Amino acid sequence: MLALTLVLLVCAMTVSVSANDSTTPSVSIDKFNLVFEDNVYLKYAVKFDGVEDDSIISGNIGMLYFNAPQTDYTEENATYTSGVVGYTTINDMKYYTFEYRHITAKQMTDYVYSVAYIDVDGERYYSAPVKYSVLDYCYAKLGKTGV
Predict the structure, then answer these.
(1) Up-side HSE of residue 33: CA atoms within 13 Å toward CB?
(2) pTM for this one?
(3) For the chain, what is the HEC assignment?
(4) CB–CB of 31/7 below 8 Å?
(5) Which of 1, 31, 49, 143 is most buried, by the most CB atoms less than 10 A from its CB?
(6) d(Cα 33, Cα 108) in Å, to the nearest integer?
(7) 9 pLDDT higher than 70
(8) Average pLDDT of 54-70?
(9) Cα–Cα distance measured from residue 27 to residue 49, given in angstroms and rounded to the nearest whole number
């Protein structure tokens, strides 16, 4: 199998987490990619700032996916949701990984809009939405090879 590295995002949580006293919690989707294995899927790397690492658990983080742009990117109007599948280290930074595995052949040019979140002290913090597609991945790869 040919696996292309893809950086992952954050998933939804329901457990309360305590925030760092000096920093406001924030969530960001810093990396995303396309993976080719027995199927094609998007993989995200998510970073949580302002929260102690041992307070981040699978019950208080998550990822929301949408098939179209939204006015409000919330769980109530998400097309799919997912939990964290693991974590990875990139440039000495720990990222939590998420996967979107709902891409059919006819959706290869469709955008997937994604938002990661974390629940801290009873409040939900969202990342900025990102949009990505198989076609975006292909364009980026073509551009990097000079084709």
Answers:
(1) 12
(2) 0.72
(3) CCCCCCCCECCEECCCCCECCCCCCEEEEEEEEEEECCCEEEEEEEEEECECHHHCCCCEEEEEEECCCCCCCCHHHCCEEECCCEEEEECCEEEEEEEECCCCHHHCCCCEEEEEEEEECCEEEECCCEEECHHHHHHHHHHHHCC
(4) yes
(5) 31
(6) 14
(7) no
(8) 93
(9) 6
